[in-house]
Amino acid sequence: MLHQLVVLGSGGALPDLKRNTSSYLLLLEKEYILFDCGEAAQHNLIKYGYNKNKINHICITHLHGDHVYGLIGLLSSMSMSGRQYPLIIYGPIGIESFILHQFSFTEFVSPFLINFVELSNNEKCVIFDCKSYSISAFPLKHRIPTFGYLYQSKQMDLNIKKEAIEKYTLTVEDILCIKKGESIFRNSKLIPNEELVFVKSQPKSFAFCSDTIFDEEIVPIISNVDLLFHEATFLEIDISHAIKKMHSTANQAGEIAKKGNVKMLLIGHISARYDDFDAVLFEATIRFKNTILATDGLIVDF
Ligand SMILES: [Zn+2]
């Protein structure tokens, strides 16, 4: 199964010509999930060649402008391009009225159904569940109510061994059952599923944590994920700013990745005060080796 994360906006609060505000697109086989929608997210969708109408879920972390100002423009463009499929928008309490007020002032009527799911949970809970994946939301600690998200795929992608088809003369019905993980009987003997299939790919997971102060309570939630996005707004030398503004340092992002034993760490949301992003990456890498820096247009396979 395809799992790629595209960075649409890697920047912190202030956009510049190279870095849009926060927005990350998760590409799945048949649809996309958008995490945050900073200003001009839709421009980068166009620039990098992704169809906005393949987005079926939008997960908003919090209502600070750099994470949400692109939403109204994206919804408007979806409507003008003839979208009919429903869309689900998750976010803290207030996300619905934030959008509906803008609809009202601009006399905009959405031609497609928008389901708003407002979050107020104080522990991790599943907010969407289907046959192939689930999305959970969990609280982060920031200046206003903020949520992290955890995507987990379910399918193992089982493929039938060719020799098993001949050996056990498998029917189409047999194959469908085996692909679901079931075993079969032949001459009153149980043939275990493992003998009939090989695993093409393991389930994948992705956690999105922005914005947040350093918070070890998220470690059990993000533990062992294939890809963790964690904000790294400041360098450790500016930790007093990080604490005051309830953000994290690159060192702390690395610390969370290490404690969570994640496979890969992606850092972003770096303050515009720094000219040298290599220093930020270096700081995180000292703590957690497999770290990469988010840049607009970057595609991360996991
Ligand atoms: Zn914020």
Question: Which properties best describe this structure?
Answer:
alpha/beta; seven-stranded mixed beta sheet; 18 strands; 28% strand; 10 helices; 302 residues; binds zinc ion
Q: Would you spell out the secondary-structure blueprint of this structure?
A:
Blueprint: E1 4-9, E2 23-27, E3 32-35, H1 41-48, E4 55-59, H2 71-80, E5 87-92, H3 95-105, E6 114-119, E7 125-129, E8 133-140, E9 146-153, E10 158-160, H4 162-167, H5 172-179, E11 184-186, E12 189-191, H6 193-196, E13 197-199, E14 205-209, H7 219-222, E15 227-231, H8 239-245, H9 250-259, E16 265-268, H10 277-287, E17 291-293, E18 299-301
Helix pairs in contact: 9-10
The protein binds zinc ion.
Residues 62, 64, 142, 211 line the site of zinc ion (ZN).
Could you describe the 3D structure shown?
By secondary structure, the protein is of the alpha/beta class. It is built from ten helices and 18 strands. It has a seven-stranded mixed beta sheet with strand order 6-5-4-3-2-1-18, with helices on one face. Helix 9 runs parallel beside helix 10. Bound molecules: zinc ion (ZN). Zinc ion binds at residues 62, 64, 142, 211.
